[in-house]
DNA sequence: CTGTTAGCGCTTTCAT
DNA sequence: ATGAAAGCGCTAACAG
């Protein structure tokens, strides 16, 4: 590694000017004699001068950084959201600190504490779990001092905005599609236990009840949020001997598992059993037949989140919370 | 949002002590009278005092932050690597700034510039593209002043370490598996054009030639790095009328596409055509039949990267660059 | 055990 | 058009 970085004093001395002048040419602010400017710029260039964002932050009280808290960046849906948030913020001159909280309150609290010490300009919470986590008073207290946006969730605080996804409506789209094709024996494959997961489940039950189908509440298969979870749910359903002609899954990954298990058991899709997924992910396209799924638009969620956060940070209060409507994406499994 | 944050002076005044004493109790450093300590802690508590990491960074010249540059966090392989890096660094008290460079030199340069201004403690470059990008003098110059680890690549600099994945060997594993099963008409589905992609291709050619198979170099299908790319490669191969019994793919996603296209065209897998993927990703497991693939161990790469980076940062020069050997993971496509 | 003081590198008045 | 000086919030000698 090379010698110590030069600071603004070193540059000033070498250029034979004061630090104020250097600062002026650095920030293109105020008037500087063209000749002086040129001389300073030459010195800057020659020494590969890099201003210290820390020292600047000391004055401005901002490092132009936003914290993005997510459950687990390996989950494609979160990756898509975080990606778009990062790119958008980068264009606006902010860097993103990534925090994988595992959906745990304790980790969330630790990360938030550190982020507050680092004086982040704002925080984006990506995922419906944060609805629950933010209810905890110790977390709520931490969030009170900084602009916050909750991507897919509602936060009741003056310094926060929410971007909501109408997941209840999303699942209703899937159920209605199946009803339209004449399906009556429809089961729901439920994995997680977040606010969003609950909304999906409600969407399923309400839509079935609305269609006059009995015992909708009993038609739920609980499982884990992975490929194996989808497979297990199907095997248990088959074993139970219950009659079924369609499965609505809360995630593409469980839907892919369901399809896999059904095929292995000799069912034809969609002739014998129809399946729907959720997220419109790459998983849906890899699955053969391609999954009919629900697009819950993570990129749009990300764009709105960034828009709201920056309006909160820069106090250009022109926006407010918003809700996004999912769409059905037709595949070959219905 | 609440009132202005208190600083160490406010606390000192309220506790009736000097800022040094407050600093001492804050950092559990030096001796403080238990009674005084308690009083200060009470004031700290009552005011929800949060020390400024920026001011601390001003003194220590470090914000305990590491930049992770990757091509695109939405690519599962990078997500797995970045996830593990983030979690490991978090345990060691560092935060991670995520940068999606798109594999472009210009974006990389911009991000690096900013990261240097923010005085990051180190940089991890995730992905073989950075081999090429870091050759550019303007990029190389930027990297010269900070600890760097290249995850899957070689960087010839005093302040850097490398974690290499033996991708040539990885593909050789796949090819040998196919040769063992009697396959002779094997094609390689090549997508990208990075150092790693080239190594894979070399592994394919060398292994075939070693087995005495003619024209190995001509048995390459060029395509894009996505599901559609894998499908297209297969369709073109079929259309060409060439004889083939096995496909070695450079990525799971192209392998999944190949499988999909083959099934749609009526081929049985693996009876008519065998297929291998690369990455041991979720895609390999979703694919039906499950892909035989190569595990290139992103988590291990991440662990080593963090180990090497922290040894570089803390100057505990006990480690050096290392190479990771992939492993074959048997699926049902061979 | 505690307080005083000098930076850390920069921006920002305020003079000149 | 330029410079001098204060201050951002903290740590780390150094004194007492």
Automatic annotation (TrEMBL), chains A, B:
<dbReference type="Pfam" id="PF00356">
    <property type="entry name" value="LacI"/>
</dbReference>
<keyword id="KW-0804">Transcription</keyword>
<keyword id="KW-0805">Transcription regulation</keyword>
<dbReference type="Pfam" id="PF00532">
    <property type="entry name" value="Peripla_BP_1"/>
</dbReference>
<dbReference type="GO" id="GO:0000976">
    <property type="term" value="F:transcription cis-regulatory region binding"/>
</dbReference>
<dbReference type="InterPro" id="IPR001761">
    <property type="entry name" value="Peripla_BP/Lac1_sug-bd_dom"/>
</dbReference>
<dbReference type="InterPro" id="IPR010982">
    <property type="entry name" value="Lambda_DNA-bd_dom_sf"/>
</dbReference>
<dbReference type="GO" id="GO:0003700">
    <property type="term" value="F:DNA-binding transcription factor activity"/>
</dbReference>
<feature type="domain" description="HTH lacI-type">
    <location>
        <begin position="6"/>
        <end position="60"/>
    </location>
</feature>
<protein>
    <submittedName>
        <fullName>LacI family transcriptional regulator</fullName>
    </submittedName>
</protein>
<keyword id="KW-0238">DNA-binding</keyword>
<dbReference type="InterPro" id="IPR028082">
    <property type="entry name" value="Peripla_BP_I"/>
</dbReference>
<dbReference type="InterPro" id="IPR000843">
    <property type="entry name" value="HTH_LacI"/>
</dbReference>
């Amino acid at each position: 590694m090379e010698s110590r970085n030069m600071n603004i004093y070193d540059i000033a001395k070498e250029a034979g000017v004061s630090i104020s002048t250097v600062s002026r040419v650095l920030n293109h602010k105020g008037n500087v004699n063209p000749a002086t400017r040129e001389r300073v710029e030459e010195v800057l260039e020659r020494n590969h001068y890099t201003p210290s964002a820390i020292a600047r932050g000391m004055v401005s009280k901002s490092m132009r950084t936003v914290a993005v808290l997510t459950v687990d960046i390996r989950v494609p849906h979160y990756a898509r959201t975080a990606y778009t948030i990062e790119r958008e913020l980068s264009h606006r001159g902010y860097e993103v600190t990534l925090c994988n909280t595992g959906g745990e309150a304790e980790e969330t609290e630790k990360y938030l504490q550190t982020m507050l010490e680092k004086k982040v300009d704002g925080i984006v919470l990506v995922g419906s779990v944060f609805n629950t986590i933010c209810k905890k008073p110790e977390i709520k207290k931490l969030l009170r001092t900084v602009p916050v946006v909750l991507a897919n969730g509602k936060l009741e605080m003056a310094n926060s905005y929410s971007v909501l996804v109408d997941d209840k409506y999303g699942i209703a789209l899937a159920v209605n599609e199946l009803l339209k094709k004449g399906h009556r024996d429809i089961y729901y494959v439920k994995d997680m236990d977040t606010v969003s997961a609950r909304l999906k489940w409600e969407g399923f039950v309400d839509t079935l009840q609305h269609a006059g189908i009995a015992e909708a509440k009993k038609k739920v298969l609980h499982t884990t949020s992975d490929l194996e979870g989808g497979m297990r749910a199907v095997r248990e359903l088959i074993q139970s001997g219950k009659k079924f002609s369609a499965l609505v899954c809360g995630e593409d990954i469980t839907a892919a598992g369901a399809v896999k298990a059904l095929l292995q058991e000799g069912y034809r899709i969609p002739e014998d059993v129809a399946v729907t997924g959720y997220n419109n992910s790459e998983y849906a396209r890899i699955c053969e037949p391609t999954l009919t799924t629900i697009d819950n638009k993570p990129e749009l969620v990300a764009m709105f989140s960034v828009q709201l956060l920056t309006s909160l940070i820069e106090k250009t209060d022109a926006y407010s919370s918003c809700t996004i409507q999912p769409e059905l994406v037709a595949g070959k499994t219905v």
